[in-house]
Amino acid sequence: MLAGDVAALETRGLLAVRQVVQRTEAMQRYREFQRVVDKGEAEALAWALSHPAGERPVFCTRDEGARRFAIESGVPTTDTFGVVVLALQCGGLEVDTARALLAPWDSPSQQRGKPAAWRGFSAELAHRQAIDGGLFG
């Protein structure tokens, strides 16, 4: 299922998948980072750090340890809702659309992608905009 979603996003130009190339500084960082975070997170962070500081892509995770490590490493970091906040800020998403799409998060049984301390859409949006504009750290 995820592979199909990724392929569809790539086809629409909304997602680009990049790999860490052998014999590069990014690959060396990737091997080092695997001692601290999971394989996928290590690869994403190693790749992000191959970009200049002001041009690094945002790293999105729900994993608290990976988030701390990314922030310490100088990578802009957020979670799923932070991506929504960033999309709202750049005009790529309307508030009403975001609220409707995230309505399932109001159910206690729905945990997929939901921030751990979910307060509801409006409260979470106001909180994020006030403290960090969507990014952590």
List key phrases describing it.
2 domains; 137 residues; mainly alpha; two-stranded parallel sheet; 2 strands; 7 helices; single chain
Mean pLDDT: 86
Biggest β-sheet strands, sense, barrel: 2 strands, parallel
Helix-strand makeup class: mainly alpha
Biggest sheet: strand arrangement? 1-2
Number of strands: 2
**Spatial gap, N to C terminus:** 32 Å
Number of helices: 7
Unreliable segments of 5+ consecutive residues: none
Which of globular, elongated, flat, extended, rod-shaped describes the shape? globular
- What is the helical fraction, as a range of percent? 40-55%
Radius of gyration: 16 Å
Number of domains: 2
Descriptive overview:
- Helix 2 (25-33) runs antiparallel to helix 3 (39-48).
- The protein folds into two domains: 2-57, no CATH class; 80-131, no CATH class.
- The model has no long low-confidence stretch (mean pLDDT 86).
- The chain has helices at 2-11, 25-33, 39-48, 64-73, 80-89, 95-101, 121-131; strands at 59-60, 77-78.
- Helix content is 49%, strand content 3%.
- The protein is globular.
- By secondary structure, the chain is mainly α.
- Strands 1-2 form a two-stranded parallel ribbon.
- The longest helix is centred in the C-terminal third of the chain and has 11 residues, at 121-131.
- The protein has seven helices and two strands.
- It starts with a helix and ends in a 6-residue tail after the last helix.
